[in-house]
Amino acid sequence: MGEGDEEPGFIRLEFQELPADELLSRAHAFHAQMDQRRTTRHFAGREVPTERLDPAPRTARPAPPGAHLQPWTFVAISNPGLKRRIRDAAEAEEKRFYEERMPEAWGEVLTPLGTDYVKDHITEAPWIVVLFRQSQRLRGEDDMSPTYYSQESCGIAAGLFIAALHNMGLPTLTHTPSPMGFLRDILGDEAEYQRKLIFKV
Is the preceding omega at residue 179 within 30 degrees of 0, hence cis? Predict the structure, then answer.
C-alpha cells in the first residue's frame, strides 16, 4: 500500500491536541456536570420521544470493547404492557432474593437504603433500556467463539450510555435483578424486536 492509503474499513483517529488551558477547562466543566448525576427511583412518567433517547446508545457505540467486537445490544421499551410483564417477573425474582437468597453482608448495605422487592419505577419510567451482553459470536457457519472481555466491555458501554442520558437531562436507575433470564423470555430474540415495536441499537 502506498503512503496515505488505508485498509478497507479503517477509521482514522481524528485527534486534536488542545491547549493546556482549554483541556483543563473542559475537564472541570465535564466533572461539574457529571458530579450532579444521581440515581433515582422516582420518575415523572412524562413521555420521552424516541429521537431524544436515540443518541444515548449511539454514544456508547465507540466504547472500547475487547477485540472491537462490541458485544452488546441495547433494547429500549416504552410499551406499557411489556413494561408491566417485565416488572412482574423482576419483582418475583427480587422477592425471592430479599426473602430467601440475600447474604447477610448484602443486607447490611441495602437495609439503610430502604429498598425492597417492589419496583414501581419499572412501570413509571417512560423507557426501560435492557443491555444484552453477547458472550459468544458466530464464527463461520456453525462455529461459536467467545467475545473477549464481554462483561467489562458492556460495563464501559453502559457507563457512556448513562453519561449521555445525564448530558441530555434524563435521570437513570440501573437495575440488575438476578437471575435475569426472564428478559429474554419476554422480549424474545432480535428477530422479534421489530414485531414488538421495540427500539434496538
Answer: yes
Burial of 157 (0-12, 13-18, 19+ CB in 10 A): buried
Structural domains of the chain in order of their starting residue, each with its CATH number = 43-200 (3.40.109.10)
Q: Given its phi and psi angles, is residue 177 left (phi above 0), alpha (psi -120 to 50 degrees) or beta?
A: beta
Give the per-residue pLDDT at 177.
83
Residues sharing a CB contact under 8 Å with residue 47, sequence separation 6 or more, in sequence order: 126
In this structure, of 9-18, 55-64, 163-172, the range with the lowest mean pLDDT score is 9-18
Average pLDDT over residues 13-37: 93
What is the SS3 assignment for 96? helix
- Give the residue with greater pLDDT, 118 vs 181: 118
Q: φ and ψ at 76, to 5 degrees?
A: -105, 130
User: How is residue 124 written as a grid cell?
Assistant: 413509571
- Rounded to the nearest 5 degrees, what angle is found at the Cα of 20, between the Cα atoms of 18 and 22? 65
Computed over every residue of the chain, the mean pLDDT equals 87
- Secondary structure (3-state) at 99: helix
Distances in Å between the Cα of 181 and the Cα atoms of 77, 93, 177, 185, 188 are 17, 10, 10, 7, 11
Average pLDDT over residues 29-43: 93
| CA-angle at 162, arms to 38 and 49, nearest 5° | 100
